[in-house]
Design a protein that fits this description.
By secondary structure, the protein is α+β, with helices and mostly antiparallel strands. 16% of the residues lie in helices and 30% in strands. It has 5 helices and 8 strands. Strands 3-8-7-6-5-4 form a 6-stranded antiparallel beta sheet. It has a two-stranded antiparallel sheet with strand order 1-2. The chain is globular and about 60 Å long. One of its GO terms (biological process) is positive regulation of DNA-templated transcription. InterPro entries: NAC-dom, NAC_dom_sf, SOG1-like.
């Protein structure tokens, strides 16, 4: 049984099994601030912060060798090329035993055959995520590139990841839980309307 997230009423799955699952067509599209709030609740920041009872249905946790930085996005649960986003809690790991560089190289069968690498590459600056005028966390944007290697020109793919972590530091702490939004960009970014006019 579960409790209603609004009123706390106990819901018995035997008497109302259709209520617990949301109907087809309901979209989960949280803002940056809402993702940080879900992350805070998941790690238990603050005594009054409580995770939504259905959050694991919308943001599953992926651990270890099945993690985002080991697996191609197409092989992650529920991820498709239709432009819709999927969200995951996960823990980035270090690329090497020494240093702070995070592992972003993923393992694919094609890479072994062709001698290149597929990896997430950070683009732009790490941005602060504010809530009520205070910085609660940070957001990084990463793009998946293929063909990394010696004397090779990396090729940009349409796979994009927005990664969020708590705190004010540009990099997340070792072993810290983060939340990521992954999607396949189906359309090129549009230019700013005001700059087109000028």
């Amino acid at each position: 049984s579960k409790h209603c997230p609004n009123c706390g009423h106990k819901l018995d799955g035997k008497h109302c099994p259709d209520w617990v699952r949301l109907p087809a067509g309901v979209k989960f599209d949280p803002t940056d601030q809402e993702l940080i709030e879900h992350l805070e609740a998941k790690v238990g920041v603050g005594k009054e912060t409580k995770s939504h009872p259905l959050i694991d249905e919308f943001i599953p946790t992926i651990e270890g060798e099945d993690g985002i930085c080991y697996t191609h996005p197409e092989k992650l649960p529920g991820v498709t090329r239709d432009g819709l986003s999927r969200h995951f809690f996960h823990r980035p790991s270090k690329a090497y035993t020494t240093g702070t560089r995070k592992r972003r190289k993923i393992q694919t069968e094609c890479d072994h055959l062709q001698g290149g690498e597929t990896r997430w590459h950070k683009t732009g600056k790490t941005r602060p995520v504010l809530a009520n005028g205070k910085q609660k966390g940070c957001k990084k944007i990463l793009v998946l590139y293929t063909n990394f290697g010696k004397n090779r020109k990396p090729e940009k793919t349409n796979w994009v990841m927005h990664q969020y972590h708590l705190g004010k530091h540009e990099e997340e702490k070792e072993g810290e839980l983060v939340v990521s939004k992954i999607f396949y960009q189906t359309q090129p970014r549009q230019c700013n309307w005001s700059s087109e006019r000028s």
